Amino acid sequence: MSQENAVAPTSNFVRQIIDADLASGKHQAVQTRFPPEPNGYLHIGHAKSICLNFGIAADYQGRCNLRMDDTNPEKEEDEYAAAIEADVRWLGFEWNGDVRHTSDYFDQLHGYAIELIKAGKAFVCDLNAEEMREHRGDFQKPGRNSPYRDRSVVENLDLFERMKNGEFADGSKTLRLKIDMGSPNLNLRDPVFYRIKRATHIKTGDKWCIYPMYDYSHCISDALEGITHSLCTLEFEDHRPLYDWVLDNITIPCHPQQIEFSRLELLYSITSKRKLNQLVTEGLVSGWDDPRLTTISGMRRRGYSPAGIRLFAQRIGVSKGENIIDFSILEGAVRETLETESPRVIAVLNPIKVTLTNFEAGVTGSRSAPFHPHHEEMGEREIPISPTLWIERDDFAEEPPKGWQRLTLGGEVRLRYSYVIKCDEVIKDANGEIVELKCSIDPKTLGQNPEGRKVKGVIHWISAEHAIEAEVRLYERLFTEPRPDAIRGEDGQYLDFKQFINTESLKTITAYVEACVKDAAPETRYQFERLGYFVTDRHDHKAGGKPVFNRTVTLKDSWAK
């Protein structure tokens, strides 16, 4: 990540552990990893983990691996793997060496399984899933040993080999660790660590019909890669004894330390891949990169900046406490980074026609304006004027409220970068809808204050002759409820989160924008003055054609109470 875009690190309990390990000599260098499953697109929770793992590696001059946790072939696709790589790079990070895959280690994982069988610490079990649940017990009742637990090493080796060779039906046998069916930690009650599954794998094809379980493959993959600190979310805290047990019972020289932190829950959003997949497959959003989703691809298409997401990750911090974050915190971080990097242009989204009755061609003048008031290097552009203008409909009121400082009949207002105008007449259609304002220019006010009076209001505008039409997509939050997947009905059951989708979350309009944006490349960010931050759409905008803009975020939090 480039130094100019770097976010200064903030101390947290993970960094304190690493500092102590380096100070004691336990480790000479830091090695982390980011291990996503290629079964969907990454979301804001993954972004937090990416910033943590890659950020720590960078801050300690260490290394971070990107490893695809590809042990569930039925749900994994090359599309998802490619999207994960693109998302990590877009956020500003680069992994150590090549992309790694858990499937790279399938031979070693199989070898360690045989080692465990030979040591009498694993057995082939014929119980089906329902029988296994019944034997497992619960928090009040200890489990019961499987009737197949005492099979001989020779029999287990033979059965496991035949499982690998495809002699048995899917689900008919599993390989289980022999730990403790009376353990208060249910994860240690002889967990399954290999199952039969005939499915074509995105990397290994049909070579394997047995696949390792996450709790087994993950710790060994970490150890094979020399990971020093294996950072994961808090739901894996109860799995840590199993992580350690596996590594303690095989002949592997490295033993990484698993450290858990709280997962991110972002209000007004969904961070479950399964539920995100529902939204996509049921056509409730336009795809994994729909700008209303907080997938990394969706946030990118919305116009969020990588720097804004990194700043957000820094602000929410890393802890073991509940990490419920309001959406406004994310939007605030995005606003803060866009403010300095986005050139400013004028757009009118809800236009009303203004006719300048005393416009004189060749006499009525124009001025130039900077693209950013604090960044001269962004340059300037001409703001042309013509007899017909567009202004925002919200900037005119026939019956203005108290304190109104915009345009009204008989009132004056400053056109930004231009003249003071006065509204002399309001034209309405047969339905009483205002269709035109007839206004007059004070010709002495181009770059000058009017004589003998003070005009407080300033509005934005655009010349109808020089403006270009643009498709503008106005996005709001996707859900009307802060925690859409945590609402229970009268019967105590969770309600379907999809019923809380905000039907007003997308509005597409035709707007008028300065012509200087026409040749902008996709993913060019702008501030539309007084309106918010917008981006040319990553896919639908074509430079030189009709512009397509997505609203990234308003200038202020429009959801604030």
TrEMBL record:
Keywords: Aminoacyl-tRNA synthetase, ATP-binding, Cytoplasm, Ligase, Nucleotide-binding, Protein biosynthesis. The lineage of its organism: Bacteria, Pseudomonadati, Pseudomonadota, Betaproteobacteria, Neisseriales. It catalyses: tRNA(Gln) + L-glutamine + ATP = L-glutaminyl-tRNA(Gln) + AMP + diphosphate. Residues 458-537 form the tRNA synthetases class I (E and Q) anti-codon binding domain. Belongs to the class-I aminoacyl-tRNA synthetase family. The keyword Hydrolase does not apply. GO terms for cellular component: cytosol. A motif ('KMSKS' region) lies at residues 270-274. L-glutamine binds at D69, Y214. A motif ('HIGH' region) lies at residues 36-46. The gene is glnS. Pfam families: tRNA-synt_1c, tRNA-synt_1c_C, tRNA-synt_1c_C2. It is an enzyme of class 6 (ligase). InterPro entries: aa-tRNA-synth_I_CS (IPR001412), Gln-tRNA-synth (IPR004514), Gln/Glu-tRNA_Ligase (IPR050132), Gln_tRNA_ligase_bac (IPR022861), Glu/Gln-tRNA-synth (IPR000924), Glu/Gln-tRNA-synth_Ib_cat-dom (IPR020058), Glu/Gln-tRNA-synth_Ib_codon-bd (IPR020059), Glu_tRNA_lig_a-bdl (IPR020061). Residues 342-442 form the Glutamyl/glutaminyl-tRNA synthetase class Ib anti-codon binding domain. Its main location: cytoplasm. ATP binds at E37, P38, N39, H43, I44, G45, H46, A47, K48, S49, T233, R263, L264. This is Glutamine--tRNA ligase. PANTHER family: GLUTAMATE--TRNA LIGASE, GLUTAMINE-TRNA LIGASE. It is found in: Cytoplasm. GO terms for molecular function: ATP binding; glutamine-tRNA ligase activity. Monomer. Its EC number is 6.1.1.18. One of its GO terms (biological process) is glutaminyl-tRNA aminoacylation. It comes from the Bacteria. Residues 30-323 form the Glutamyl/glutaminyl-tRNA synthetase class Ib catalytic domain.
